[in-house]
Fold this protein.
Amino acid sequence: MVDIHSFALPGFVSQATFALTLALLAWSDARTRGTRWLAAACALQLLTTISHAIMPVPLRVSDNLSACLLVLVFFLVYMGMRWFVLRIRLATMNGPLALSAAMTTILSVGVMHPGAELAAARVCALIVLGATVVMLLRPRIKSLADIGRVMAFLFTFMAATVALRLLLSLGILGHRGMEPAAHDLSTIGLTMLGFGFVAMYVAETKRRLHEETRLDSLTGLHNRRAFEEKIQREVQIAARDNTPLTLLMMDLDHFKQLNDTWGHALGDRALRTFGGVLLTVTGTRDAVARLGGEEFAILLPGRSPRSALSLAERLRATVEGLRLSEGEELVRFTVSVGLSSLLPGEKSFEPMLRRADRALYKVKRSGRNRVLLADSDTHPVPSIPPARALPDLQPVAAGGASQRVREFVG
């Protein structure tokens, strides 16, 4: 990747262009951290090319420097790709330690066999490139699978050029006269990788925008659009596999009164807190959404009505025990829940949604702060009676301070 014999203008222009482009993208969009690694790799490659062109150094030093920078550049690229496809931070020192060990090995090989530094570095680069290809073919973010396969192809091409230059340097393949052609192939590979880096950023930005249009900005939960897409897919799966599917519809009780009494700031806190509780009590396969206002929903694939009822009661009790601090008072709120399950033969979610809505309406008419399974389900379960309401403005001991509980219950 680091050429020490010539200063090719086309290669320099492409390296400069991609280094600048990725640097600007990394600076303007701090959320896409993988771009920083890629920008650093391109900038390092560009500085290496410039330094070899305008600051000649003794051949011995040049070989050592080129060998170390070659491995460092590909390590930075690997870290950038790792962020894009795995979203796993560098939690240990294994990566830096492996990089240090590789550089130490390269320099040691150079001491024992002068002139073999670049060959050793290319072997290390091939290992890093191989690990990168394997990682790209197994992305954690499924929406990046297509661009991941394209990048895997580009890295495979780059690995082939590195392997070709390795074989030429060892005298195994052809003769030294093929080195300029191998260098040209490396330049082409670098240019293709530069385009690939920008394409990876574009794909990630598109994916993020797609996700953001399906998220509620206040709670971070799915919005109605995303939830309807999810529930339709799960209904098709449940109908095909004959597996249970249960829906919970929820309303925060007297939410308008809470807003009118304490203001929208506290109301927003209540919504965010409730959203956090929903994520706590549900699993990774469950879908949680804010449908609008104080209305929320949970979709539970694979859950029977009785199992979902148990979860709903745990959710209700958890919310009932919450307290939001506002000045000298602790504000309490509750939630009402209506449940319904997919019935045999149903192919759409609308009937199940209507039954859950009716169950929720019955709960709100009968006193709120309750859980009710729709009567039309195949296995009706009696609704769970509400807990005894705390009296309004009841004093509560909190760290020795005198605070009061303001609750909004029917």
